[in-house]
């Protein structure tokens, strides 16, 4: 099969490799479309990856089940699915075939395109973990019954947009959303009648802080989802959050001491692949196993949708361009995806 490997310079090499076999609890998926994420160009550059060499760590899979490992229930060969590949492991989505665990896989309805499906797994689960496991906000089936302010920084990003979608399902308002070029898209995700508002980060840090404070009009605000986690984002939030308050970030808030009473906790989406700790049978893995099927139901019933997407042509041959465009900050309110069948020499 054709498989793409990304190096620390974001250069992509396509190689012929053997098709992997699923182990216990895993699925082998024939990848039709792979999504991309900022981590795909960032991780190869991290010091922790020194010495690992180029790797295929694509995490957003959309395709058909090709084979099931021992112990897998609920999936059969030929099922149309989307899946979240385990981060920092081999056999990711940048290939004709990829491996995923059954508990991070969900069925895609016939009406959902593979392109849309490939925008969902990593970003949507990051949003869900942040809102419900880290901020402990009301779940969609037990929505808030009174105003519950929430700051979402980076509302046009895929993670931020999914956080807004889930927050609305949970009746969490007012939503104070920080965005830039993607403001028109964010406008489609909020409800102005419930006090939701958008703040433009391009006005500068002081303006952002002042506008967040003004949006609340003196009321307490104790929860924030930082889908950016760089360039002063969590510092801006922390300066206006009410103590005790919590910010969840998608990147580590290293080297920063938050004000007294403000807690910063990482979303750590990779935790859905961690086994429960001793004495705790239900943690992030079980949350993911329960929440991914809910996303599938939402797609089927029409109350949930994927993120806007743009196809980079050429299949795996277009992956390098997609990742370099991500690194250059060209993506706004869009996810880049590649169709594996367009790869030169692919068997599909």
Describe the protein.
It is a single chain. The chain has 2 domains: about 160 residues, Medium-chain alcohol dehydrogenases, catalytic domain (Quinone Oxidoreductase, Chain A, domain 1, Alpha-Beta Complex); about 150 residues, NAD(P)-binding Rossmann-like Domain (Rossmann fold), CATH 3.40.50.720. It is about 25% helix and about 20% strand. The protein has 9 helices and 15 strands. Strands 3, 4, 5, 6, 7, 14 and 15 form a 7-stranded mixed sheet that branches. Strands 10-9-8-11-12-13 form a 6-stranded parallel sheet, sandwiched between helices. The mean pLDDT is about 95.
Mean pLDDT value = 95
The CATH topology assignment of the largest domain is Quinone Oxidoreductase, Chain A, domain 1
CA-CA gap between termini: 10 Å
What's the overall geometry?
globular
**So, CATH architecture of the largest domain?**
Alpha-Beta Complex
The profile of the biggest β sheet is:
7 strands, mixed
SSE ordering: EEEHEEEEHHEHEHEHEHEEHEHE
| Structural class computed from helices and strand pairing | alpha/beta
Number of helices: 9
Unreliable spans are none
User: Strand tally, please?
Assistant: 15
The first-level CATH class of the largest domain is given as Alpha Beta
- Integer count of domains: 2
Q: Radius of gyration over alpha carbons? A: 20 Å
Helix content: 10-25%
The percentage of residues in β strands lies in 15-25%
Q: Mind telling me the CATH superfamily name of the largest domain? A: Medium-chain alcohol dehydrogenases, catalytic domain
